[in-house]
Design a protein that fits this description.
The structure is a single chain. Helices cover 33% and strands 15% of the residues. The chain has a single domain, classed as Uracil-DNA Glycosylase, subunit E (3-Layer(aba) Sandwich), CATH 3.40.470.10. It is of the alpha/beta class and 181 residues long. Keywords: Activator, Chromatin regulator, DNA damage, DNA repair, Glycosidase, Hydrolase, Isopeptide bond, Transcription, Transcription regulation, Ubl conjugation.
Length: 181
Amino acid sequence: MTRLTPAELEAARDRLVPDVAADGLRVLFCGINPGLMTAATGHHFARPGNRFWPVLHLSGFTPRLMKPSEQLELLSYGLGITNVVARASARADELSAEEYREGGRLLASRVTRLRPRWLAVVGVTAYRAAFDERRARVGPQERTIGDTRVWVLPNPSGLNAHWTAQTMAEEFGRLRVASED
């Protein structure tokens, strides 16, 4: 991967990154919002320290470790990617409570239209803010969006030291098994 300069990353601020999505997916993974590396490259979870791609493979969702640039291949496995908030920022703490709430409303509309079997929000804090579910925990949720069930997964950011790649893969694997029913 080409190394981007700080100026190139900053130029990606507020950019939108297209979803990797289609109707009737098995699982639609939902990040918080695109980081600057994702916005600069156009590839979801592109930051080198992000563990999304390794965990997706370790959990059995993909048969091999994929690169962010191969994101469209996810569709062949019945998987997709979207975000709670569309605009790119350097850090999730740059997002306002209103952006999370509006993002949750727009996400629910998108899920209603696309009808995935599962919506998997990666980040319990983002899920709580977007859907006003203050007591939500990692795992399957009571909430549904139409016929779509909801699962909250740990945030794969390298900054989330509470979860190792292995413990994340176990939680992702629980969703994988549930999504195969």
